[in-house]
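// run 5 | inverse folding | seed 20
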C-alpha cells in the first residue's frame, strides 16, 4: 500500500510540475531567435498567435538586445513609426502591417547599456487588402551608436497564416 501511495505521489508531482512547465511552449512563439547582429545589437520579435483573420489587429512583442561594448540609443515614443513590420508571402507580395496612428508624440530616446535589452509592443493590423495565405512576418528598427551613427536592425522571421 505504501508503494502505491508513493507512486501516486510521484505521478501527482509530475502532473503538477512538469506538465504546466511544458504547456506554455505550445502556442507562444518564444524569443529564442534574433535577427542578424549589427554592431553587436539584435532584434527579436514574438507573437502569441500565428493565425490571424483579415481585418484583425494584434501586437508584436519586440526585444532589442545590446551585446556590444557601447551604449546605444533607440526612440520608444511611437513604435508604429519607429518599427517597420512587414508581411511577405512566397510569391514576394509585401504588406506593411504596422498600425498607423494619427497622433504624433515627441521623440523619447532611451539608452540601452551594454548587456541590457529594451522590450516594446508594436501594434499591427492585418488589413482587408491582405490575401489569405501563409506569410513571413519581420520587423525593422533603427538605433544610434554612442558616436551618433544610425543603423537598421532586422528581426527574426515569424511564420503566420492569414485567414478570411
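// decoded
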Amino acid at each position: 500500500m505504501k508503494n502505491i501511495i508513493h507512486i501516486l505521489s510521484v505521478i501527482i508531482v509530475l502532473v503538477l510540475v512538469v506538465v504546466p512547465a511544458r504547456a506554455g511552449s505550445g502556442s507562444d512563439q518564444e524569443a529564442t531567435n534574433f535577427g542578424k547582429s549589427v554592431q553587436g545589437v539584435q532584434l527579436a520579435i514574438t507573437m502569441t498567435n500565428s493565425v490571424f483573420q483579415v481585418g484583425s489587429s494584434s501586437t508584436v512583442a519586440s526585444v532589442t538586445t545590446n551585446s556590444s561594448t557601447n551604449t546605444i540609443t533607440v526612440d520608444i515614443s511611437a513604435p508604429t513609426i519607429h518599427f517597420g513590420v512587414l508581411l511577405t508571402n512566397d510569391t514576394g507580395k509585401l504588406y506593411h502591417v504596422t498600425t498607423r496612428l494619427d497622433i504624433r508624440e515627441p521623440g523619447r530616446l532611451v539608452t540601452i547599456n551594454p548587456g541590457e535589452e529594451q522590450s516594446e509592443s508594436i501594434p499591427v493590423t492585418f488589413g482587408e487588402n491582405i490575401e489569405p495565405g501563409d506569410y513571413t512576418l519581420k520587423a525593422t528598427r533603427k538605433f544610434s551608436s554612442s558616436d551618433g551613427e544610425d543603423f537598421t536592425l532586422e528581426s527574426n522571421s515569424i511564420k503566420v497564416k492569414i485567414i478570411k
